[in-house]
Amino acid sequence: MNKINLNGIELAYERFGKGAPLVLIHGYPLDHSIWKEVVPMLEDDFDLILPDLRGFGESTTIAEPYSMADIASDIASLLDALGIEKATLAGHSMGGYAALAFAKVFPERLSGLALVSSQAAGDPPERKEARYRTAADVMEKGVQLVADAMTDKLSPSQHVRDVIRPLMEKQGVAGVIGALKAMAEREDLTSFIASFKQPLLLLHGDADELISVERAREIKTLLPSSQLVELLGAGHMPMLEMPEQTSAALKKLK
Hints:
alpha/beta, Rossmann fold, eight-stranded mixed beta sheet, 8 strands
């Protein structure tokens, strides 16, 4: 992987293909490798940039609390280093939160946005509290408990579960805790997305147990100009469950 120092961390990333820049942003608690199935289907159309967000994969992190806006700044700094002025961002789950933060903080640098198995709403109080409890548990017991709690909810496909579980288990404690706190404190961007001017793609499995497809349908209602692609039978990991359909949907942002 390529690595670059920025914003007090070492950010790892991979780059494939040619064309318009498209940043594929992974979710929690995963890394860039979740996109590997779709890369061969997209690299003839896009300059693909796949970062490991701070604290995940091969990227380092910091001890101090950070926000989704800080993660968005990491992405902007990576684009700076690569000499890219504007890009389309596709964010999966937590990656969607980071992509939305980027859209708000750096609107002039965004060509388009895809929210994959994600949402614009912030955490209600009980969900926020649950994230902090999980962060405390991870500090005490390790990342294994997150893998135990999440694996069966990520996909109805046993094959995908078998791929994802070891990926979650190898993530670092500091990155998982930092991400949990950043997600808990993220801004509700529902009103922001309702007035969004750039091309917006909503890609969601109708069998997603972690973030209901209703969240994507609500955004479609708020912003009729957005494109909603529902994948029948897909759970929270459409890029692994249905890579062909996921790639076809992302090509709508060309």
